[in-house]
Input
Amino acid sequence: MRSSQVSRQTLADQVYDRIVEAIVMGDITAGSAISENEIAVRFGVSRGPAREAIFKLEAKGLVTRLAHYGARVVDLTLDDLQALFEIREGLEGMACRLAAERMTDAEIGELERKLMLHASRPDVAAGQSYYQPGGDQDFHLSIAAGSHNMRLLRTLSGDLYDVMRVYRFRSSVRPGRTREAMDEHLAIVAALKARDPAGAEAAMRGHIRSSWANIQNTIKGLS
Output
């Protein structure tokens, strides 16, 4: 019985991860309805893991549930997004300042290696989009980990993380933004390598402000 529960929970987590990637990539669109049956069929699982995955999506702020309408993928207003970007700028700026002081040379080298791996992907090299895999392959999360402040890392990798990934990817598909974002990431790494806390924080804050400006232009262009 206990083994079955662990297996089911692991499957629900896997389904959750696949749904998140589909939302990030736009395969499941903002504002669209999402149901246990649809998820079960789409990912070839029973309704139990699909239900658990949707509950987790709700808890993470990626899905909202309204009476008479059911569950829908979140579609944030500009005001909601502004609040998130303001929080993100403050927290990630702080994380980058701490990382400049605390990351080991090996950790900075690994961060640079990840960035070069990102730059080598065809979509990034062609300037089409800048998709970052989740978890420890994510540039921003790697810097948060490099702050060596576990409470800060948990905050940035918690409820904010998956919602922000959705909008980070949407921001990257505007023509020219992929190259800009890569250049901004390179500037951040340069400040980290120089062990320049103030410069690292300023580079990260500038990068997030640029991302926010791009998101505003993208959304306004669609309205």
